[in-house]
Design goal:
By secondary structure, the chain is mainly alpha-helical. The chain has helices spanning 3-13, 15-25, 39-63, 69-76, 88-113, 119-165, 184-190, 194-197, 202-205, 212-224; strands at 169-173, 179-182, 232-236.
């Protein structure tokens, strides 16, 4: 049997040994793989048997007659979806520890049992192992980024839905005196669309002619005192809107 295939079988058959060695590197030598309350560590512990089996298969396939590169990659690509509650930095650290156990401890143990496992075969095995873990880390990072992007999009969508469903006018003014948010109720009351309002100075749109000088002075008064003009959120019932506005004094 090809040395790489033998090493693949060696890894697959020693999953518990690898798990025990990895568990000891985490700092306690606890008899159980997962630490109480550590969601990430427990997920790594649960995934470890699958990881070893998948890596073993990749080594076995590499040890056989070379096939089409794309087919080989599709057969052995390691993809795993982590459950909610994990921390990416802990995943990276944990996979690095497991990589060390397999590429150093496990490889050394196999070489002791197989004197014919020469330096060339060992170098090839190390390259496959590192590529396997690199693929897993890249895939985990991509999924993490996609999840965070989806969470942000969902949060923004939810916030916008709340604003749009509000019966009251909601106008958000930034520290520069410009409008940052303008909901549907404000569109109906003032006659400006959100696209027309956002980015404009408040005084340009909704301050009556007799008040703009006072309104325009507000940000300057705060800046002169060394502070930023505070973010203002006005929630005004449409039925009781009347001038003058309750401007900051």
């Amino acid at each position: 049997m090809n040395p790489l295939s033998e090493f693949g079988r060696f890894i697959s058959d020693r999953t518990e040994w690898i798990a025990d060695r990895w568990n000891k590197t985490t700092g306690g030598g606890q008899p159980e793989l997962g630490f109480s309350g550590n969601n990430t560590h427990q997920q790594l512990a649960n995934f470890l048997p699958t990881l070893c089996q998948t890596l073993g298969k990749r080594l076995k396939k590499e040890g056989k007659t070379r096939r089409n590169e794309k087919t080989l990659l599709a057969d052995t690509q390691s993809k795993h979806r982590w459950e909610p509650g994990y921390a990416l930095d802990e995943i990276v650290r944990g996979l690095g520890q497991i990589l060390h156990v397999i590429s150093i401890d496990c490889l050394a143990a196999f070489a002791r049992e197989r004197p014919e496992f020469d330096s060339s075969a060992r170098a090839k095995a190390e390259a496959i192992i590192h590529q396997f873990f690199n693929d897993l880390l890249v895939e985990s990072a991509r999924r993490f980024a996609a999840e965070k992007q989806n969470e942000l999009a969902a949060s923004e969508q939810n916030s916008q839905s709340i604003l749009d469903s509000a019966l009251d006018c909601i106008v958000v003014i930034g520290d520069d005196g410009c409008i940052q948010e303008w909901n549907i109720a404000a569109e109906r009351l003032f006659g400006y669309s959100r696209g027309q309002a956002v980015g404009k100075e408040m005084a340009e749109l909704i301050i009556p002619p007799e008040l703009p000088s006072f309104a325009l002075r507000a940000p300057a008064r705060y800046s002169a005192g060394g502070s930023k003009f505070p973010l203002c959120v006005w929630t005004v019932p449409s039925w009781m809107w009347s001038w003058p506005l309750p401007l900051i004094k």
